[in-house]
Amino acid sequence: MSATGDNLQFAACAALGAACVLYGGELALYSSTVRLAFDERRQRTKMDIFFLLFGTVLFCLSTAFVAVMVAFGGEIWIARPEHLGGAIPRLDASASVWYLTSAGAAIRAAVILSSGLLIYRCWVIWNDFRIFALLIALYLGTSSTSIALLSVSSLPPTADRIALVERLAVVEICGAVIVNLLSTALIWSRLHSLGKGHGGLALGTAAARQYTDATAVFVESALPYTVAGVAYAVAFAIRSPALPIFLMVYGLMSSISSQLIIFRVLSGGAWTRDRSLMRCGDEIESARATKYSAIKLRMMRRVRF
After folding, report:
1. For residue 75, what is the DSSP state?
2. Alpha carbon 137 to chain centroid distance?
3. Which of 58, 95, 101, 165 might form a disulfide with 154, Cβ 3.0–4.6 angstroms?
4. 269 closest CA partner among 107, 20, 33
5. Integer CA distances (angstroms), 301 to 99, 285, 293, 296, 297, in order
6. What is the Cα–Cα distance from 254 to 248, expressed in whole angstroms?
């Protein structure tokens, strides 16, 4: 096998190993979420059921993706490495086969759903429709590009189609990373500002820290997902030999970060719209009090003179 083939085999084996480890972590998270959702000591709501179904869909998509990639990798690298002229020619020939297309569809669907959940959490925390509308516009554009890329890549490869796939892949990756970066930055900044001003929250100082501490910011902002996306984008841009590793980590980290958010929501430790409304009420009352104080001060000055 050539040096390129050796590098590709090493990257593929490392990617499959990372996929198995991350999938095990997601399985543990999903099991904890299911156990928490069906705990008889807590009362389930409609949103709890929705988040449980959402997490189940993500877990099924990750399972399909990992199963196909492990089976395909074992066949071309271990079972029949010299079939059809070797692993690299076989990879090129199998680019549009139905099971690899299905695996690509599964992981793209997981990324789209996870980004949608992140945008929803950003709207919940900010409670501002303008921010939500901007993120949704970018999200719909990126999702449309992903669907177009999946459709083109499922066709038999030609020179024109390969060039189109590369252009669509660049747009897809850049769009997804921009959406995630904006969402993460907005969530982080909002929770950070609320944490600094937790004394004015209606929840009280101790309760406010529960929703704005480092763990809350780490989970709510889906920081691992965003960091993995940036790393994947950089590896794609420089055409790194380790690209399969970053792809696998990015795909599965989307589901894991969402599972963390879902578990935090079901456990009652996540920020909700009720708390956002409480915060907005505090800010309105604070603004009114400040305005009233300013008016009162001006009136006192006029009386003095």
Report:
1. I
2. 17
3. 101
4. 33
5. 79, 24, 12, 9, 6
6. 10
For residues 251 and 202, what is the distance between their CA atoms, to the nearest angstrom?
39
Contacts of 256 (CB under 8 A, 6+ apart): 22, 25, 26, 29, 224, 225
User: Residue 168 in contact with residue 145, Cβ under 8 Å?
Assistant: yes
CA angle 196, 201, 205 (to 5 degrees): 70
Give per-residue pLDDT as tens, 170-218: 999 999 999 999 999 998 888 877 766 554 444 555 556 666 777 778 8
Token pair of 61 as six digits:
């998509």
What is the value of pTM for the model shown? 0.80
Q: Positive or negative, the Cα torsion across 65, 68, 98, 52?
A: negative
- pLDDT tens string 124-143: 888 878 878 889 999 999 99
202's CB contacts (< 8 A; 6+ apart) are 278, 279, 281, 282
Gyration radius of the chain over CA positions? 24
Rounded (10°) CA dihedral 231, 234, 236, 241: -80
Cβ atoms within 10 Å, residue 249: 23
Rounded CA gap, 153 and 102, in Å? 11
Of 269, 167, 185, the closest CA to residue 226 belongs to 185
Integer Cα distance of 216 and 213 in angstroms: 5
